[in-house]
Specification:
Blueprint: H1 2-17, H2 22-35, H3 39-46, H4 52-63, H5 69-80, H6 87-102, E1 104-111, H7 117-131, E2 134-141, E3 146-151, E4 156-161, H8 162-176
Parallel strand pairs: 1-2
Antiparallel strand pairs: 1-3, 3-4
Helix pairs in contact: 1-6, 2-6, 4-5
Length: 177
Amino acid sequence: MKALIAKRYVKALIEALGEKKIGEAEEKLSAMAKAFEDPRFKEIIASPEVSKSQREEFLLSMLGEKADKNLVNFVKTLGIHNRFDLIPEIALLLQKEIQRRANRYEGVVESRKPLDKKLLSELESSLSKYVDATVVLHPVKSERDGIKVTVEDLGVEASFSKDRVASDMISHILKAL
């Protein structure tokens, strides 16, 4: 439900700001969204003891003095409708929309050992050709014995496991006999 409401706010924000200013708005809203990770911050924003105008001023101060007036009005609108809790979701959806418009997506590569830059670059290049978009991969250390590539926004997931390759080779050899 939150996602559906947040989508409407994102659409309205993009229309109000225009293409040129959505990147700056995304940065500011992402910074606000990071603040929501702190339980004390969330408590202040949700507290009935803190007035709506104080919460609004607090969030507006995070935007800075030179913030776009449409972004300021956007935050005020969230306050009017008691939707400050949607800021993390709005920031995430705005980031995804910017990626979609730029045809650039980010993903992760999980592996036990660190991947060298050449292999990471080859994976990015191959995946970019496959999905017809620019893909940037970030290495993540895991306990997986093999490699797992995930680009969530595109619905792409591929994994290569030593155990699976070995079992596939054995079954292929047994079939050949």
